[in-house]
């Protein structure tokens, strides 16, 4: 039988595996399914429809499955809710919001680590083995592939895609897509390739070399999207990694984050003002780190 603290409130619609543990002051509302080994430590709130996979642990203050933060969503509208995979750690005050539709839930994969105060917005799709560090946030409809690391205080715009094994440095933010195996070191700016992540994932040395070469040719300096795809597809026959990158770039709708070879937007504006004789060094100050 599940272990339920006397102060917890569990809806009769909830389906609980036999070894589920629900701690003090937890509230489980509506059609919620908790698989084997799920543990709600204390003060966890889950609003169904929601599914929590086997072995996942939710820490105090976590709020799962509440209505999306979307002006177009009418409170009380049916939703597919949330699905969280197996073996996840959901730390204090994490929020994962329900989807806006009735067909596909907001999804978090297996073995994800959502650190304290992270946010997964409505209709997001988060893959397996994803790490989100404190105060990182995904806006609605984002797609995050497997083995991505999103460091602290990172903000991701709606509908942005983050490719497999990408790494985003603390405090960065993106409103454009981040290709697989790449790092982001400031706002909308690729810094290089995720060498450590690729090695830890067991990628072949030849594949890593191919990714590094492709990054230099496609992403470091400004290259049109069509040309990016051509360069990546040229090596795709002998490199699954390049085939993956080519498919990702081909599917972009928001554009690809540029590399460090592209001048920051504020610098381009400064040069234009300088040609007109109205520029000063102060023009560069307010937007340092901007794209």
Walkthrough of the structure:
By secondary structure, the chain is α/β, with parallel strands linked by helices. Among the domains are: 3-141, Hexapeptide repeat proteins (UDP N-Acetylglucosamine Acyltransferase, domain 1), CATH 2.160.10; 263-291, no CATH class. Helix content is 19%, strand content 23%. It contains five helices and 28 strands. It has helices spanning 195-200, 205-218, 225-236, 240-250, 265-275; strands at residues 3-4, 9-10, 15-16, 21-22, 27-29, 32-34, 39-40, 45-47, 50-52, 57-58, 63-64, 82-84, 89-90, 95-96, 106-108, 113-114, 119-120, 125-126, 131-132, 137-138, 143-144, 149-150, 155-156, 161-162, 167-168, 173-174, 182-186, 189-193. The strands form three sheets. An eleven-stranded mixed β-sheet has the order 1-4-7-10-13-16-19-22-25-27-28. The chain has a nine-stranded parallel β-sheet with strand order 2-5-8-11-14-17-20-23-26, with no helix packed on it. Strands 3-6-9-12-15-18-21-24 form an eight-stranded parallel β-sheet, with no helix packed on it. Helix 2 runs antiparallel to helix 3 (225-236) and helix 3 runs antiparallel to helix 4. The longest helix has 14 residues, at 205-218. It starts with a strand and ends in a 16-residue tail after the last helix. Mean pLDDT is 92; it is low at 286-291.
């Amino acid at each position: 039988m599940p272990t339920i603290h006397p102060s917890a409130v569990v809806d009769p619609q909830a389906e609980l595996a036999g070894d589920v543990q629900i701690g003090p002051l937890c509230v489980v509302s509506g059609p919620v399914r908790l698989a084997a080994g799920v543990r709600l430590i204390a003060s966890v709130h889950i609003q169904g429809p929601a599914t929590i996979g086997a072995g996942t642990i939710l820490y105090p203050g976590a709020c799962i499955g509440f209505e999306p933060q979307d002006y177009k969503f009418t409170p009380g509208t049916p939703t597919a809710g949330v699905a969280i995979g197996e073996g996840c750690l959901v730390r204090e005050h994490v929020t994962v919001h329900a989807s806006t539709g009735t067909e596909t839930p907001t999804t978090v994969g297996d073995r994800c680590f959502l650190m304290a105060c992270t946010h997964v917005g409505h209709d997001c799709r988060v893959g397996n083995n994803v790490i989100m560090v404190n105060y990182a946030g995904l806006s609605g409809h984002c797609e995050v592939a497997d083995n991505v690391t999103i460091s602290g205080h990172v903000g991701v715009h709606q509908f942005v895609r983050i490719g497999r094994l990408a790494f985003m440095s603390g405090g960065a933010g993106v409103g454009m897509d981040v290709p697989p195996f790449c790092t982001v070191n400031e706002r909308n700016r690729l810094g290089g390739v995720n060498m450590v992540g690729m090695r830890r994932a067991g990628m072949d040395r030849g594949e890593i070399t191919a990714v590094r070469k492709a990054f230099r040719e496609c992403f470091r300096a400004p290259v049109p999207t069509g040309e990016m795809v051509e360069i990546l597809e040229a090596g795709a026959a002998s490199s699954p990694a390049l085939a993956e990158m080519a498919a990702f770039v081909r599917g972009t709708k928001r554009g690809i984050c540029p590399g460090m070879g592209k001048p920051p937007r504020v610098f381009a504006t400064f040069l234009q003002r300088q040609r007109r004789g109205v520029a000063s060094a102060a023009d560069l100050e307010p937007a340092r780190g901007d794209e």
